[in-house]
Each structure stands twice: as C-alpha cells, then as structure tokens.
C-alpha cells in the first residue's frame, strides 16, 4: 500500500496548525490571573485562538488518516512536537536542551514503531 | 518560568499525565461510538450525531476537559516539556485497544510503547531540573 501525498500533506498541515494551537494555549495560560480565573479565561483571545487551531488541526488529521500507511502517517503526526520545541524557544524563550531533543526523538521513534505495528 | 516553584511544576506534570489517560479514554469512547453513526453522512448529520450519541458526546466533552487541564498545566510549566508528554496517550491507547477492542499486541507495538515511555521519562526528568 502506498501513502497518498495528499494524506501526508493533510497530516503535516494538521501537526503544524496543532503546534500553533499549543503555543496559543501557552500564551493564553500565561495571562490567566489567579483572582479572576474564569473571567480571564473567557475573555482571553489567545486561548480561543489556540482552541480554534486545535479544532482545525483535528479536522486535518481526520482527512489525513483516512488513507495510507500508519507507519508513515503517525511520525508525521508527531512532527507537531518538533514544531512546538521551535515555537517554545521563539515565543517563550524556553531553551533548547539535550534532554528535550532526546526525549522528543525517542517519542518520534516510538510512535513510528507503533505505526509499523498497527499495520495498514 | 522563573516565577514557578518546583511544586507548581511538579503539579503541572501530574496534570498532564492524568490528561493523557483521559485522552485515551476519549478516543476509546469516540471509536466505539462512531459505529453508531451512519457511514458517509453529511457534516451536519455528523454534528447532530455527535450531540445525540452519548458515547461520542462524552468522548468529545472529555477532550474539552483535557484542553482545560492543559491550560492549567501550562501556567507553570514549559510548553516544550509539557506538550511532548501528551505522546503518552499513544501508550494508553495501545493498552486500551488490547484490553477493550481485543486488538493483538505485537513486538513493534510493544517496542513503541517502551520507547515512548522512555522519551516521556527523559522529558519528565528535564522538567525537574529547570
């Protein structure tokens, strides 16, 4: 079975948009106030944008995962973790560390193995 | 991040670990609820189906809860450490697939589960050092 390029593009797009969503949630979470948690959450456009990006990314994943090999598509889903490392440093000044790359690298390998084991 | 105490960071990690279990439960609910939906229905029918099928509704509602938990966790922890930990949900999904849907475990899946857990463990240790 061959994985269609369109499936790969849907999944890569989904991981990219999902990672932006994660950055939106982080940006919003930083602005929550303890005294006024609910109000500061509801009126927080960064949180809303993050949630919206998540919803859009899940639609992309549904389209992308319909056809093709999971051993190819699962690793592409987890590309989102790599994108997130990048946004974390660019927008929130979180340092790149060896542990982060090693951890995410292992997760990518593990997810690939799961995709291979899941057949299709 | 400097204003977060180690206790707050540890709590963030625990919140995310719990949310990965809920993600796997949500996926199991959605998977078993999708069978109740008519195949090839339109977008509107699917939306109505989600709202009126208890398993699907519960599954998607759980995703909402998880998103709230993520936000709480992100208040006091680095995004780059917390976000990849979500991959642990793959592990629980594999376990649930075997237990609930009687899918077979094979060497590749087992190796994948072990490798993901080690990756998450390394991130968890990295969390403690920041």
Task: Please trace the helix and strand order of chain A, writing H or E for each element.
Answer: HHHHH
Oligomer: heterodimer
Strand content of chain B: under 5%
Shape designation of chain B: flat
* Estimated share of beta-strand residues of chain A: under 5%
Number of strands of chain B: 0
The SSE order of chain B reads: HHHHHH
Write the layout of secondary structure elements.
The complex is a heterodimer of chains A (120) and B (130).
Chain A: H1 5-30, H2 37-42, H3 45-64, H4 70-92, H5 98-117
Chain B: H1 6-34, H2 43-52, H3 54-74, H4 79-85, H5 88-101, H6 107-129
Helix pairs in contact in B: 1-3, 1-5, 2-3, 4-6, 5-6
Describe the fold and architecture:
The complex is a heterodimer of chains A (120) and B (130). By secondary structure, chain A is mainly alpha-helical. Chain A has one domain. Chain A has five helices and no strands. In chain B, helix 1 runs parallel beside helix 5 and helix 2 packs across helix 3. The model of chain B has no long low-confidence stretch (mean pLDDT 87). Chains A and B meet through helix 1, helix 3, helix 4 and helix 5 of A and helix 3, helix 4 and helix 6 of B.
